[in-house]
């Protein structure tokens, strides 16, 4: 199988899994918000998940991503070291998770009271299990990425999404409320972690004949490389979750529900970009190791152009249809999420670039540079949230996210350019064409949106925009129908 075919195959598997995960997440979001929980319960659930995501930082650090980098490298040059690497990584994770879990169990009530949400104490107590199983579920996905076995990553991700949906809805219907939904998340991650660890053991740990000796200094390098990755991951999680936590601290659970809903819709739209970035990133490490940087540049430029061709028009359309989309799908109780979603539409474009770029920089060995950039913008995001949430309200959190992430994306692109020498003039022409397509498509959607008065008409407006985009994308030469048909087969 050629490298291009391998990338396409991996992208298909990842995209299908991501589609299953996001569709199940979207259905769960819809059922919880529309029928099963009130805005307060919905906001409390995702506020707790945001708090636990920050605590998860200490439990995960950067060992998973660091291990994936060395899995990618040593599976080619010294496969006998793989069992040693797996054993070291899992041992370190178990020790750290045990310490974090014990601390959370002891202080969960104090944490809840200190953050102004004493009713969240039972969630935080159950969070000990959540942190453990979530950690191993995500670690195995990243590990399989390092081995460039993306189908396995896809399986683990799809299981977590479907199981969360089934058990969260089931527990809420049993009368357990938001806490029941939280336990549904836990069961979903228990199942996906179990499958992931089993695959890792039987497909990789036992399949590589261990070297008689552990390469001198390898465990030290594994830990050292985890330091910048820990910094980047910490900054990334804080950047994504601290705004949700602060909205809950300064405002109300209902405000958290509005903000969370906007972010969840954004995440749903971002699924293809995340899948593509997850798929192509291991190839950059392999190609740098073999000196094939020109090929790496071609892959990145093509991926970036196609990603922007999808996301710039899509987010423009999302801004236009945000109000009927939110009120018709989730109900008028969530109308407060409309301005949040419209601001976060800009973030969708920025995050699409980040999803394509960030993992690639890790595999190119530029984790330290990315960590510095992410740390600086995360600190700025935290400061802006402290200023804007109390003064502007929930929309202030969205503004802070867009402002600081713009800087981070610019730095990421600069680092990629320094590594791959991107052809900026060629990329500029492509971006100009994409903006032109976006303008025409947006005008078509804008003209029909005032007529939208039912979900069926909303679907029609979206279909009109998609048709306009497809015709212009093909006419401009940015999309070749033959390539689309080839990728689908």
UniProtKB/TrEMBL annotation:
Q: How does it sit in the membrane?
A: Multi-pass membrane protein
**Localization (cell):** Cell membrane
- State whether keyword Iron applies: no
Coarse class of the primary localization is membrane
InterPro entries per the UniProt record, alphabetical: Poly_Biosynth_Transport, Polysacc_synth
Q: What are the protein's UniProt keywords? A: Cell membrane, Membrane, Transmembrane, Transmembrane helix
A single Gene Ontology CC annotation of this entry is:
plasma membrane
Q: What is this protein called?
A: Membrane protein involved in the export of O-antigen and teichoic acid
